[in-house]
Design brief:
The protein is an alpha/beta fold and 157 residues long. The protein has one domain (2-154): Phosphoglycerate mutase-like (Rossmann fold, 3-Layer(aba) Sandwich), CATH 3.40.50.1240. It is 31% helix and 16% strand. The chain has helices at residues 22-38, 51-64, 83-90, 107-115; strands at residues 2-3, 44-47, 71-73, 99-103, 128-132, 145-150. The protein has a four-stranded parallel beta sheet with strand order 1-4-2-3, covered by helices on one side. Strand 2, helix 2 (51-64) and strand 3 (71-73) form a beta-alpha-beta unit. The chain is globular and about 45 Å long.
C-alpha cells in the first residue's frame, strides 16, 4: 500500500482535486523506481479517485512498467478511517496474489499497523508499505509481515 505523494494546498479546489507538489512528483518517482528494483510483480493495482492518489499511482505505474489494463480506480479507497479500505481488501478476488493500493492517511497508517509486524508512527507522503500475508483468501487476512518499507527520505536522491 502506498500513500499519495505530497500534495499542494495552493489552489482553491475540493479535497479530491488537490494536485501534487513538485516534491511529491519526485518522491513518487523515487519510490516507484525503488519498488521496481526490489518488489514483486503485481497482479493488479487500485487507486483512490482523488487526484493526488491517482497521480501518484500513474507515476508508480510508469516507473514499474505495470500494464494499465491491470489497473482500476475504486471509490472505496478514498477513505481516511481505514474501514472502507479494509473492506475493499478483504473483498479482493482470490485469484489476485499481489496487489498495490494507493490511498490516504490515517487509513493507511492504521492498516499498516493492524496488518504489519512493525509499528509505523506515521506513513509519510509517498510512503510504501509492502505487506505479505500467509493466507490464500483476502477475506481472512489479519497479521502479516512487513516485507519492505520505502519512504522517500530514506531513498537516495
Amino acid at each position: 500500500m502506498m500513500r499519495h505523494a505530497k500534495s499542494s494546498w495552493e489552489l482553491e479546489v475540493s479535497d479530491k482535486d488537490r494536485p501534487l507538489q513538485q516534491r511529491g512528483v519526485e518522491d513518487a518517482h523515487r519510490v516507484g523506481s525503488a519498488f521496481y528494483r526490489n518488489g514483486p510483480a503485481l497482479d493488479f493495482v487500485f487507486s483512490s479517485p482523488a487526484n493526488r492518489a491517482l497521480h501518484t499511482c500513474m507515476i508508480f505505474l510508469g516507473e514499474t512498467g505495470h500494464p494499465k489494463d491491470r489497473f482500476k480506480v475504486d471509490a472505496a479507497l478514498y477513505d481516511f478511517s481505514g474501514e472502507s479500505v479494509q473492506s475493499f481488501v478483504e473483498g479482493l478476488d482470490n485469484h489476485l496474489d499481489t496487489v498495490a493500493i494507493f490511498g490516504h492517511n490515517n487509513a493507511f497508517t492504521s492498516l499498516a499497523n493492524t496488518w504489519g509486524d512493525r509499528y509505523i508512527e506515521n506513513l509519510p507522503t509517498a510512503g510504501l508499505v509492502h505487506l505479505v500475508f500467509d493466507v490464500d483468501r483476502w477475506s481472512i487476512i489479519s497479521k502479516g509481515r512487513n516485507e519492505q518499507l520505502l519512504f522517500p527520505k530514506q531513498l537516495n536522491k
